[in-house]
Design a protein that fits this description.
2 helices; about 55% strand
């Protein structure tokens, strides 16, 4: 179960970037803090922090590791100013569907993703609160 939460957290990071990259977010090294909840209960008392090079190549690599290219689709993207909402549907290694929304700038974002993830044939609700900031150039 914990591995599924970790995979969905990394997946969320990639999906946030994919959805928001059209919003003029700068490529580079990003630090993303993810606080996950399963069924309304926090998974951990501290957020998980992921540092990832966010550019087209880095995001494609992340998505490929999580189930192959094209495993997740974003639909109904509605961007108004510095706020965006969209739907997510993933199949393959990780099956999930849900909604997301974020407030963003070129150097930071914050948002929430509400997903239903299939784990051992059961639907598990996962809410993830994300905060990201650009911390430098990719190495």
């Amino acid at each position: 179960m914990t591995r599924r939460v970790l995979v969905s957290a990394v997946l969320c990071t990639a999906l946030f970037w994919t959805a928001l990259s059209a919003a003029e977010m700068r490529e580079g090294l990003w630090e993303v803090s993810i606080q996950a909840e399963l069924g309304g209960q926090p998974v951990s008392s501290t957020p998980m922090v992921v540092r990832q090079c966010m550019d087209e190549h880095g995001v494609q690599d992340m998505l490929a590791k999580l189930g192959g290219e094209g495993a997740c689709t974003i639909s109904d993207l509605d961007q108004r100013g510095d706020h965006a909402r969209w739907n997510v549907n993933c199949s393959g290694q990780t099956e999930a569907s849900g909604t997301a929304e974020a407030d963003f700038g070129a150097e930071e974002f914050s948002g929430r993703m509400d997903l239903t993830v299939m784990v051992n044939g059961q639907s598990v609700p996962i809410a993830q609160h994300l905060k990201g900031k650009r911390v430098g150039e990719c190495q």
